[in-house]
Automatic annotation (TrEMBL):
Domain DUF1330: 35-109
PANTHER family xrefs: DUF1330 DOMAIN-CONTAINING PROTEIN, PTHR40257
Cross-referenced SUPFAM superfamilies: Dimeric alpha+beta barrel (SSF54909)
Residue stretches spanning the membrane: none
Domain of life (superkingdom): Bacteria
Species, as recorded: Actinomycetospora endophytica
Protein name as annotated: DUF1330 domain-containing protein
């Protein structure tokens, strides 16, 4: 299962409305030892998020699901607010940011990365 967006995913993401503010919902399932590795990724991520004006709205570890099908509980949830879809794209294309994405990949066995539109 993919844990990072592909080039075609990013193209479709930007086509929707590149200048629209977006909050990215991240649902995360950790590999063994992945929670600690993800903390390393978040330290790296914060540097590049700040460069594009993004901020972490919420990060928390999951508990037992109250309503969910078997296997739908997530280990953690991350919400990140970006000033625009283009800002997100600029961040993930930054070579410095890309140098640390292996931390995210190594930390996760499964992820959902879903844009949401603030209301």
């Amino acid at each position: 299962m993919a844990v990072n967006p592909s080039g075609s995913d990013m193209k479709a993401f930007l086509a929707a409305n590149p200048d629209e503010p977006v909050v990215m919902l991240n649902l995360l399932r950790f590999a063994e030892g992945g929670a600690e590795r993800y903390d390393e990724y978040l330290a790296h991520f914060r540097t590049y998020a700040e460069k594009v004006g993004a901020s972490i709205v919420y990060f928390g570890h999951g508990a037992d699901a109250v309503v969910a099908e078997q296997g739908q509980a997530w280990d953690a949830v991350l919400l990140v607010s970006y000033p625009s879809r283009r800002a997100f794209s600029d961040m993930v294309r930054d070579p410095g940011y890309q140098e640390g994405t292996h931390l995210r990949t190594e930390a996760l066995t499964e992820a959902v990365l879903q844009p949401t539109t603030p209301r």
